[in-house]
Design brief:
This protein has 589 residues and is of the alpha/beta class. The protein has 16 helices and 14 strands. A hairpin with a 6-residue loop joins β13 (460-461) and β14 (468-471). The chain is globular.
């Protein structure tokens, strides 16, 4: 079997290590993923700047795959790579000041429940989602569909970007792609709904057909397609509006599927094509999409298909030969396991089914085991770590089943800054390879050009066998300064009343529109509107109780006593006195 040359063989005689990033879906905890990426880019920028573009070894970021919030982060990240909109965030910007960092601006400052509970989307006389997705479109347009700019090629502006650099977003294709499999016993027809959108930047074409993005002009249709795909991969079912996407039908014919085979006792990956059953006359394949995390929340397979040698084979897992790896960024918005309580009615039973399906999608057993194994050097993982918070979860956005970050900006800021800190720790002591030592122990050839002083400065002990190891991406320059651990945030109880008023407003507006669209007679409309008015208070009380209980469980609810408002009592007594005076006047008259 012919094997592709190792990426450590370069024309510049410098060893190369290739990286694929996998960004898992995490709802509002995408703020954590954004923070991780922010520090990663800072570290790479500093690594090349410190060595005037000639470090002792090269790092190539070859592919980013993402689902849901991770896909949205990856899209903003890709659009920002060609410009100066990724300035590292060291602290919270001044009040009223918009950050020049597109990741922080989008994931911390812009996205908020205030916008999601508006009713701008109802002007179209149709109800597509529980929440208003208008703000998300505005964020995508600002972060991705920016004004045309003249920028150098990616590989020159940021030399650690591969050519081509690829972005793959998982989406749940509600139309599906039909396939026919000819088996020995007959023919099997199946439909694949786990789809993806494939983009690339660079002078060289990718292996599979992809939408090529021009970094010198962000006003093209290709960037607008990326903007739509970013919204589609993050369209949480029912919560956010679904989106229509289109692909060239011929792209499905060129799609390659990874197949794990064994030969001479060795496992290797081979890519095989499977032709879909599409109408011959259909050149453009249109489909409606929702959240990519619904079917592929940690798209390892999409990044792996790019990072694996083209002719097949496998990525080296041993520390002495590893020359490429996948890094999973997994916020996992959950804490310690809770005491089990069996569902007792139809509503709770239905909720358990939905939560089980979502949790199972997040559980990639084989990939997670490989990423957590200290002896495997082709899989790595960054996840939130704040030891004193284990029982309640390490991230503030993990409240309310991952939606908590939307209700409070300090939650999002905390998780962004924690992502930066965790990434720094990961690069310093987790993302490493054996480097050998004075005793003659072998090391990875990636560090062949390192001088002794640098080895002594950066080497760390392995957690697995206590051998000496060196970082693949050393933290140098400004990236060497310790990323601070952010203070744990809290949610003011007085904000709950305002939040409930906003929820009630959205409930009323969306409910009325739903009734008007689906109730056929004025009698049924009147009845349903009365029921909405009668049950609204009960629903809001249930929502209040759920929010308060969850925030207290995660220890993010400020327990400061609510401020007394004597003016309310004054108004009440003045109102009673006014009524009594009016009654007395009428009697005397």
């Amino acid at each position: 079997m012919q094997v592709e040359p190792s990426p450590q063989s370069t024309t510049q005689s410098r060893p190369v290590f290739e990286i694929g990033l996998v960004m898992a879906g995490a709802i509002s905890a995408g703020a954590y993923t954004a923070g991780v990426v922010d520090f990663l880019i800072e570290a790479l920028d500093r690594w090349y700047a410190t060595h005037n573009g000639n470090p002792p070894h090269d790092v190539k970021l070859r592919v980013v795959s993402g689902a849901s919030a991770g896909g949205m982060v990856g899209s903003i990240f890709t659009a920002a790579l060609g410009g100066d909109t990724l300035q590292p965030v060291k602290d919270r910007p001044e009040a009223g000041t918009k950050s020049k960092n597109e990741l922080y601006r989008a994931w911390v400052q812009e996205i908020d429940i205030v916008h999601l509970l508006q009713s701008k989307d109802l002007d179209r006389k149709r109800l597509l989602s529980v929440l208003d997705s208008t703000k998300l479109r505005e964020i995508a347009q600002h972060a991705i569909e920016v004004k045309p700019v003249a920028t150098p090629a990616f590989s020159k502006r940021r030399p650690y970007l591969a050519d081509p650099f690829e972005l793959i977003l998982s989406v749940a294709n509600l139309r599906g792609v039909p396939y026919i499999l000819a088996l020995q016993g007959g023919v099997e027809r199946m439909t694949c709904h786990a789809d993806y959108m494939h983009f690339a930047v660079g002078a060289n074409p990718p292996r599979e057909p992809a939408i090529m993005l021009d970094p010198s002009d962000y006003s093209t249709e290709e960037w607008k397609t990326l903007s739509k795909a970013a919204l589609a991969t993050g369209a949480f079912p029912f919560g956010l509006a679904p989106h229509n996407l289109s692909r060239n039908a011929k792209e499905y014919a060129g799609k390659r599927w990874p197949v794990t085979l064994y030969k001479d006792g060795q496992e290797f990956t081979e890519f095989r094509a499977l032709t879909p059953e599409l109408p011959d006359a259909e050149e453009t394949y249109d489909f409606l999409c929702v959240d990519g995390g619904l079917l592929n929340n940690e798209p390892f397979n999409l990044a792996h298909s790019v990072l694996t040698p083209q002719s097949g084979g496998r990525n080296e897992q041993g520390g002495l030969k590893s020359d490429r790896a996948i890094v999973l960024i997994a916020p996992f918005p959950s804490g310690a396991a809770k005491k089990y309580q069996a569902p007792g009615n139809l509503l709770s039973f239905s909720g358990s089914i939905l939560s089980s399906l979502l949790a199972q999608v997040r559980f990639s057993f084989e990939e997670l085991l490989l990423a957590s194994d200290d002896n495997i050097y082709s899989r790595f993982m960054i996840s939130p770590k704040r030891p004193e918070r284990f029982e309640q979860g390490d991230i503030a956005c993990g409240t309310l089943e991952g939606f908590g970050g939307f209700i409070h900006e300090p939650f999002r800021h905390h998780d962004f800054m924690l992502g930066r800190r965790n990434c720094q720790r990961f690069l310093e002591a987790g993302f490493t390879l054996p480097c050998g030592d004075e005793s003659g122990a072998p090391g990875n050839p990636l560090f062949a050009n390192w001088d002794e002083a640098s080895r002594q400065q950066f080497r760390v002990r392995s957690n697995a066998d206590r051998s000496w190891q060196l970082p693949i991406i050393p933290c140098v320059g400004a990236a060497l300064n310790e990323a601070p651990l952010p203070d744990w945030p809290s949610y003011p109880p007085e904000k709950i009343d305002r939040l409930l008023r906003q929820i009630g407003g959205r409930m009323t507006n969306a409910g009325k529109l739903f009734i008007d669209l689906h109730a056929k007679s004025w009698i049924s409309r009147s009845f349903l509107r009365t029921a909405l008015w009668a049950e609204k208070g009960k629903v809001l009380r249930w929502i209040r109780g759920t929010i308060v209980a969850d925030l207290r469980e995660h220890k993010v609810l400020s327990e400061n006593p609510r401020k007394k408002r004597p003016w309310k009592k004054l108004i009440f007594w003045l109102f009673l006195i006014g009524i009594a005076a009016a009654a007395a006047v009428s009697v005397w008259a």
